[in-house]
């Protein structure tokens, strides 16, 4: 059985857009039969946790640049449209393959 990937969705307040992105990603993960533990938080909390993958909006790229994220442990994916299943699929699947989750 494949290992479970821990994915964190991040937005400014940790409520609206991160949850919408989580729901869009859930569709993609289910379609590809990928086991995942999903959660959503605000950007200040994101720096203190170490998921396998962080998914967030492109406009948070500057804030993430200031965080010390161990890129060997955590991949960060920036999305133009955080509710686009197509964009999530295009950006997430290669990272999941590269990190041996699929």
TrEMBL record:
Domain PTS EIIB type-2: from-to ranges: 5-100
InterPro entries: PTS_EIIB-like_sf, PTS_EIIB_2, PTS_EIIB_2/3
Lipid metabolism found in the keyword field: no
Identification of the protein by name: PTS ascorbate transporter subunit IIB
Keyword annotations of the record: Signal, Transferase
GO molecular function, one term: protein-N(PI)-phosphohistidine-sugar phosphotransferase activity
Signal sequence coordinates: 1-20
Signal listed as a keyword: yes
GO terms (BP aspect): phosphoenolpyruvate-dependent sugar phosphotransferase system
